Amino acid sequence: MTIEWYIVLSSLLFAIGATGILVRRSPIVILLCLELMLNAGNLALVAFSRMVGNQEGQVFAVIVMVVAACEVVVGLGLIVAIFRRRLPLDVDDLRTLRG
Amino acid sequence: VEEILFFAAALGALGGAVGVVAMRNPLYGVLALVVHLFALAVLFLLLSSAFVAAAQVVVYAGAVMVLYVFVVAYVGSDQESAWEPIPGQRLLAPLMGAALFIELSVAVLASSLLALGTDGPDVKAGFGDPAEIGRLLLERFLLPFEASSILLLLAAVGAVVLAGRQRASGPGEGAGVPSERFAESAPLPPAETATSPGRSPSEEGSPAPSPTGDVR
Predict the structure, then answer these.
(1) DSSP B43-58
(2) pTM attached to this predicted model
(3) CB contact under 8 A, B75 and A83
(4) Rounded distance, CA A14 to CA B36, Å?
(5) Do residues A17 and A34 make contact, with C-beta atoms less than 8 angstroms apart?
(6) Exposed / middle / buried, residue B110 (Cβ in 10 Å: 0-12, 13-18, 19+)
(7) ipTM score for this prediction
(8) What pLDDT sits at residue A93?
(9) Is B166 helix (H, G, I), strand (E, B) or coil?
(10) Are A47 and B156 in contact (CB under 8 A)?
(11) Mean pLDDT of B21-50
């Protein structure tokens, strides 16, 4: 398979993730769709690293995984805090910074 | 064989992604994301990057997804309302997604990267295995590696501060502002309220069973 296939697949996955963020309203599902977009970026990074024949893109992908894990931890902590305060878990209702 | 594996993994990844977007129940969405991540790991192996594939399975499909499952089980999965703040949003959003895909594809395929149409150069046998990536991480990319470890530590402390059960502060209504925010939402048994007025962020949350603290 040529590298083009991987890149096109990656952009398709990115578009699906972006669509999910636009469509869904639960913050958990929006975090899941963010994961989709980050993974699409990872796939593109690894595919380009294979295209160049250089391993540094894979290091980038590993660092992206670390950042994604941090984002998930903080995001889920926020969701738990929102749930504890009995606010609705809906991004259209949570539009102000004040609780 | 490589084509068959690629198309199977690509179908798995696409199906998982569509499942994440389309599933009503967030728990099923998490499971669809697990399928997606495993398919992506197969794609990483096809691109001869073994370490990234292993990290994908262990870190993502293992640890992060368990965190998601715990939070979904804690929060519960109620249905989203069908109310649309912008009329026609559910119809417009896939169109925007399709436009984004076409735009990205045109941007990539119409670029002058000649090596896009090839399989990539021949690489040596150890390309992308843990020894090579580890050498890169510890020599050339040592500073980003350490910075990411600090970032992980900060995220862990932040999650404990955000989600940890806050103690109501000491006796006599002397509640400070930060603990007062949480005091109304997390009612505590009265035995715990008079324990420690002075607290540090690292020690709170560790005795209390917080859902994120269980996983880590």
Answers:
(1) HHHHTT-HHHHHHIII
(2) 0.78
(3) yes
(4) 13
(5) yes
(6) exposed
(7) 0.90
(8) 73
(9) coil
(10) no
(11) 89
